[in-house]
Amino acid sequence: MDKNFGGVIPEKPALPAVFRDLEDLVLQSGWTKGLERSVVDHVLGSMHERYVPTGGFVAQSGAPVQDWIGVISGLAKMSVTTSDGRLSTLIGAPPGTWFGEGSLIKSEARRYDVVALRPTRIALMPARIFEWLRETSIPFNHYLQHLLNERLAQFVGLLKSQRLQGTDERVAHCLATLFDSPLFQEPYFLEVNQEEVGLLANVSRQRANLALKRLEELSLIRVEFGGLVVLDMAGLKSFGREPS
DNA sequence: ACATTAAATTCGA
DNA sequence: TCGAATTTAATGT
Fold first, then answer.
1. What does pLDDT average to over chain A?
2. Which of A12, A31, A224, A243 is least surrounded, with the fewest CB atoms within 10 Å of its CB?
3. pLDDT band at A11 (very low <50, low <70, confident <90, very high)
4. Residue A194 CA to nucleotide C11 C1', Å?
5. Which CATH number fits the domain that encloses residue A145?
6. In this structure, what CATH number is given to the domain that contains residue A194?
């Protein structure tokens, strides 16, 4: 039974754009730029896809690394657990993220837990194919350099915001770095509850709530039940550092 | 920590 | 299969 509220339709937030399947992800990823179509097809043929339910492991710390991993849809978090404590720092992996190349290059065991925050589909590229691309493709190597550089910048930025900015700024910064993907067009909904935001930004849930409301005041986001809508990603990114 | 509200699930017809 | 009742999860203060 649907009701008509005088033509006023409650607006549904747009869902984030997400990759359709493995092939869609690969074809749209930066590293296929400059690769021969035949090479891409060969690589595609070697890859497979895996579904990970909420709370499931995408990758486990200590496990041998067999694949380079890309996120097709859903959302995962990478967490580093300290040897003794349960204190873990978190990094988000939205669709389009590729990770694990560090351990692949050094051929060591995984150093992070990667856990699905919601039902997630991942793409797996076997280590041998990854190696083969590194050995034979300059464009692929250029992409890896770009990726590593980006990640370094992300870490530096994170460290900076943790050290010399207030809580609201940290929360804004975390949201921006974790969920900034060129695929996402504002406004888009993020299914992340306030407790998780707190974990990501290293603040209590209560404080995260205050920070989110503040960001809502500024029309950068809209707070909803069980998540939030990003209205202005650029604003989130620059929040807390006006002067150049 | 507590009160409130949204959503999900169960239950009875 | 519908909707009211109950339980669970998330929010706001």
1. 86
2. A243
3. very low
4. 8
5. 2.60.120.10
6. 1.10.10.10
Provide the domain count of chain A.
Answer: 2
**Residue A54 approaches strand B within 7 Å at CB:** no
Instruction: Give per-residue pLDDT as tens, A74-97.
Output: 878 887 766 544 456 678 888 899
How many residues are recorded in chain A? Answer: 244
pTM given for the model: 0.77
Give pLDDT, residue A242: 72
Domain of residue A101: give its range.
22-159
Q: Which nucleotides of B are covered by protein (CB under 7 A)?
A: 1, 6-7
Decide: CB of A226 under 7 A of nucleic strand C.
yes
CA–CA gap between residue A228 and residue A166 (Å, rounded): 21
Answer whether any strand B atom is within 7 A of the Cβ of A226. Answer: yes
Residues A29, A120 within the same domain: yes
* pLDDT for A101: 95
Strand partners, A73: A121
Whether the beta carbon of A166 falls within 7 A of nucleic chain B: the reply is no
Residues A31 and A138 reside in one and the same domain = yes
**Which DSSP letter does residue A32 get?**
G
Q: Which residue is nearest to nucleotide C11 (CA to C1')?
A: A225
